Amino acid sequence: MRTGSRGSRVSLDSLVYLYREGMSPESMVDSYATLTLEQVHGALAFYLANREEIDKYLEEGERLSEIQHQESRRTNAELIAKLLRADF
């Protein structure tokens, strides 16, 4: 889900992760200047009202990301080894 105005696109995911880390709504606005405090509070209210469903969605995304990461490391093992051996 995306939230924002004037062409800005900040994911709900981004705000939820910041919220989980303990960041205040005011600090979120400082981090995403295109968002208003009202929009951040609205996004957080939506998250809190749908917390179980959104947490499941985020967990699934993290799981899929880890699978892709492992697959990429396996597929690119030779390249990764060359890069690790390279002297920069």
- Which strand-content bin applies to the residues? under 5%
Give me the count of strands.
2
Biggest beta-sheet profile: 2 strands, antiparallel
Query: Strands of the biggest beta sheet: in what spatial order?
Result: 1-2
Total helical elements: 5
Using only C-alpha atoms, the radius of gyration works out to: 18 Å
Q: What is the terminal separation in angstroms?
A: 41 Å
Q: Give the helix proportion (percent range).
A: over 70%
- Class of secondary structure makeup: mainly alpha
Q: Label the overall shape.
A: elongated
Report the mean per-residue pLDDT as an integer. Answer: 89
Order of helices and strands: EEHHHHH
- Poorly predicted regions are 1-6
Describe this protein's structure.
With 88 residues, the protein is mainly alpha-helical. It contains 5 helices and 2 strands, in the order E-E-H-H-H-H-H. A two-stranded antiparallel sheet has the order 1-2. The longest helix is centred in the last third of the chain and has 25 residues, at 51-75.
Task: Please outline the helices and strands.
Layout: E1 2-3, E2 10-11, H1 12-20, H2 25-31, H3 37-49, H4 51-75, H5 77-85
Antiparallel strand pairs: 1-2
Helix pairs in contact: 1-3
What tags apply to this protein structure?
single chain, 88 residues, mainly alpha, two-stranded antiparallel ribbon, 5 helices, 72% helix, elongated, disordered N terminus
In short:
This protein has 88 residues and is mainly alpha-helical. It has helices at 12-20, 25-31, 37-49, 51-75, 77-85, and strands at residues 2-3, 10-11. The protein is elongated and about 50 Å long.
